[in-house]
Design brief:
The structure is a homodimer of 340-residue chains. The first copy, chain A, has 340 residues and is of the alpha/beta class. The first copy, chain A, is built from 15 helices and 6 strands. In chain A, strands 3-2-1-4-5-6 form a 6-stranded parallel β-sheet, sandwiched between helices. In chain A, β5, α11 and β6 form a beta-alpha-beta unit. The radius of gyration of chain A is 20 Å and the shape is globular. The interface between A and B is large, with 58 and 58 residues.
């Protein structure tokens, strides 16, 4: 992944200083506009007009160890909900005219037969094995899932999408996410593990113990593929590939909550520097999310107490990203407005 | 102002619990959707489709006491910028399809002659007197300005706008805003006073001293009109009326930064309970903004380090407000989606 374009970023920062407002008065919108210029290599950066949300779905063998109260079948049922357009991510995407696609990269149970152009059937395997007792999958599985994400990003860019948004669905997937974050940051599982979509104290203690044991089993903590295979998930691997694919294509990628942030940490191992090309959509309430944001120096755009996943927080941030680009394109300069 | 509709809010909260997501997973979006139902008296609340931003402009005699480095003429020049569509608020409003109107309620210097349907010429007087040395204006002036805001809100609602957004422009207007906040909260000026659009240490000390002296002069701190006349501003008075007008019409009002929050504090004195009908668009970096948000128990939607005014932060929040309403309207329930 190439570094951000420093010359274009300088030009963008200079232009910000000429617009009809006190210097710095638009805060994070200004720094975001400069990063967008650097990511896309153009100043002013064009206003993203065709955002696409890719929701990667996969299942997790670790649900058999009791880390979540939700049955595994809900993953496939929610995929159906995405396909028929009734989920939160669909509603939020419609509000901003973003396309939603759903990528089955590892759903374990049958997806209800719904004819939908949104579905991409790229199932690598029917869910992972239980990471509490052994590797979640093989290295070959992890590599295949990463490549699914890469190719989906490339397909969307080829189709003209100019802003990529990460989403996911997978019952139990806060467990591999917290495990990856613990493994890569070196923090204990207790710091990285949250309640996901509503676990009680007992389940939280079990989930934390499962994660600590699984991380202790990992041999090479600097090998992203190895980590994905040992303690990761199929949709997480695909998300890592998707993020790298967007960054490599010069298209900004908005990341969502703790699952996509875990994928981003892995992506940073596979392609150092990739996180510079990424925009943090929001700060999820899951503790692992803030750990990754801090580690990578990413300042999220929203902090609305969300913990849903699906890409919901990232989609909500699309309007802010468009606004930042529009400011740099469309505001009058002091000269143009005749203001001294 | 009527209290929020408790029955409709209960229905909205119940509906949130039936949607295909873990309870509470959409955080502030959920509580906002419930408030929108209460404000509009409808469940689910309709998604606001015709937002309007009213930018109230006025000048301030206190600039003669040296509280800002910007010349007073910039108010009129920025009004011209709003009319031609080159200011930040115009750019941000266009992104979300919001109409912008500009209300001259007290600009002191001539507004460049620009033919624009956006302009509402409702000048009460050519700026205030210097509040550092005496009352900013008469009670009659303050009342007239409040009534301008009320009638503008009513006009916009009559024209079919279903979401009102507050904006303002007035060189020097962080000084009367901080003064009103200090007077109503009882806090010292040093706590309420910020650097506005870029004052240095010396000017900040002078500004703080001016505010403390002016507040000490006020007789009845519970009389909103008296406070506006003694230490307020024409656009601030109009904003107070505008907020009350929107609330009385059952239309949600998004407030912006420290100037509109000062107006909201006054509005709360004139019409107790009005702040329940208000949505805080963002947390400005001005210290007075957080003081008012905390005092009124308002949780802002955005925190992007903005300190521009014009309504910029409130306009950025329009998409979040629409999203909250859309969630309650359009998401599938567990029943509808066939999820156990």
């Amino acid at each position: 992944v190439l570094p951000l374009d420093a010359a274009v970023m300088s030009a963008a920062a200079e232009r910000q200083g000429e617009l009809t407002k006190p210097a710095g008065a638009l805060g994070q919108l200004e720094s975001l506009s400069v990063r967008l210029a650097g990511i896309t290599g153009v100043c002013p950066p064009s206003v993203p007009a065709r955002p696409a949300v890719a929701v990667f779905a996969g299942d997790h063998g670790v649900v058999r160890s009791g880390v979540t109260p939700w049955p595994q079948e809900v993953t496939a049922q929610m995929v159906a909900n995405f396909l028929t357009g009734g989920a939160a991510v669909n509603v939020l995407a419609r509000q901003v005219g973003a396309e939603v696609i759903v990528v089955d990269v590892g759903v374990a149970t049958p997806i209800p037969p719904i004819a939908s152009e949104r579905l991409r059937s790229r199932n690598v395997r029917l869910g992972t094995d239980d990471l509490a007792v052994g590797p979640a999958m093989s290295r070959a599985n992890a590599e295949a899932a990463v490549l699914v994400g890469l190719s989906i990003a490339q397909d969307l860019v080829d189709a003209g999408h100019d802003l990529l948004v990460t989403g996911e669905m997978g019952i139990g997937n806060t467990t591999p996410s917290a495990a990856l974050i613990a493994a890569i940051t070196g923090l204990p599982a207790a710091d990285c593990t949250g309640r996901g979509t509503g676990v009680n104290d007992e389940t939280l203690a079990l989930k934390t113990a499962v994660i600590d044991r699984a991380v202790a089993r990992c041999r090479d903590l600097s090998d992203g593929i190895d980590l994905l295979a040992e303690i990761g998930g199929l949709e997480i691997a695909a998300l890592a590939g998707f993020i790298i694919g967007g960054a490599a294509a010069g298209v900004p990628v908005i990341v969502d909550g703790v699952i996509t942030l875990a994928a981003l940490l892995v992506a940073e191992q596979l392609a150092p520097g990739v996180s510079e090309h990424v925009i943090a959509g929001h700060r999820s309430t899951e503790p692992g999310a803030s750990i990754v944001l801090d580690k990578l120096g990413l300042e999220p755009l929203l902090d609305l107490g969300l913990r849903l996943g699906e890409g919901s927080g990232a989609v909500l941030a699309i309007g802010i990203v468009q606004a930042a680009a529009a400011i740099l394109n469309d505001m009058a300069t002091f000269n143009e407005a005749g203001i001294a």
